[in-house]
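Researcher: Let's try something more involved. This one mixes different molecule types, so please make sure each is placed in the same coordinate frame as the others.
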Amino acid sequence: MVTDTDTADGFVAALRAQSQRYHALHPFHRRMNAGELSRRQLQSWVANRFYYQQTIPRKDAAILANCPDREVRRRWVQRIIDHDGTADGAGGIEAWLRLGEAVGLRREEMEDERHVVPGVRFAVDAYLTFARTRPWVEAVASSLTELFAPDLMAERLAAFERYYDWIDPQGLGYFRARLRQAPRDSDHALQVVTEHCRTPEQQAAAVAALSFKCDVLWSMLDAIDRACADQ
Amino acid sequence: MVTDTDTADGFVAALRAQSQRYHALHPFHRRMNAGELSRRQLQSWVANRFYYQQTIPRKDAAILANCPDREVRRRWVQRIIDHDGTADGAGGIEAWLRLGEAVGLRREEMEDERHVVPGVRFAVDAYLTFARTRPWVEAVASSLTELFAPDLMAERLAAFERYYDWIDPQGLGYFRARLRQAPRDSDHALQVVTEHCRTPEQQAAAVAALSFKCDVLWSMLDAIDRACADQ
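Model: All components are placed in one shared frame. Result:
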């Protein structure tokens, strides 16, 4: 007999199975964590990824705008505050800018997006459009790559300290903060998704949303990898 | 010679002139503040207006989702927190539910929207759609009815305490909070709008946005007034 618990377990397992499509497995990330990227390649990654970072609070606000559940909104708004910060010098976007400075980029060349390649822009904009236009529970499900993020963050921190010792470790604050924030965020998102997705159709839509998000992250690395292959 | 300051002064004057279209002048509000509404009419107003109140944080999140300026987002997010609160029993939506209880409504009959009339739903939904789909600076401009709100709130508080003494004054906390929040919010919105609207076309769009918002509020009172005329 298949019980509700079995179904929920199967659903969570299907979500977790998307880890096989997470960008931790992308050749560019594998080379990053093996210490094989040049300084220029790391700079390109940081500058391109900044376009993603600065879009995240807008993506989360789009989810809030579509969400009629006050209790969910009360918790979700914390993500916006985490990224934007509450004052000058605070927040995840600021921490990413400091990472950029630590790898030798100037703030203005990140903020003016001169290094952002089209494939990164298309992927990130597609993620924002998804959050704006799809049902809010699917948008929440798409955030569940955070289930897989802590392992990658831990591996990346170790790799940066080991292989890229020209980067000031003070610049790695963003990764350290996400080690703490990502599990809290993914716990909440998983709770929301399992509560709201009860039918096979709803659960399939949630898995598809997470799969889409894996495509966004993977596609960004494809574009970055291609753009700086010879650098 | 027309200077930039003259132009800005003229722009702010044009925004302030929209006070002549503010719903404080609607016959229903005039009767409310003259003590002429029945208990059933006040209940209808509170229950219908709840639909507006609970949409406000989603409207503000839609503005955040469209706004690329981190400094603006850092301040604007406070509006969402003010309305949603950070815990059970906190926030403007909760304060409105307590107002509803003070006028004799149960929470569930506000939350299930049974009293919400179509004209109110259409007007509020139009406001949310406006915030989602129009340029974010226009959506900010549409919030500037808050320039006119404190006078109405002060008049309403006095009227409630004078004419509707069957309402527990504890239930009027929402109005008291807005006396403090609305000037802070409208100061920020006016600063954003004057900074971003420099051309005649931009300024005309901002005035049109505020005019649209006056239509939203006025149309809600038309619908409520018609729905409970005989009660």
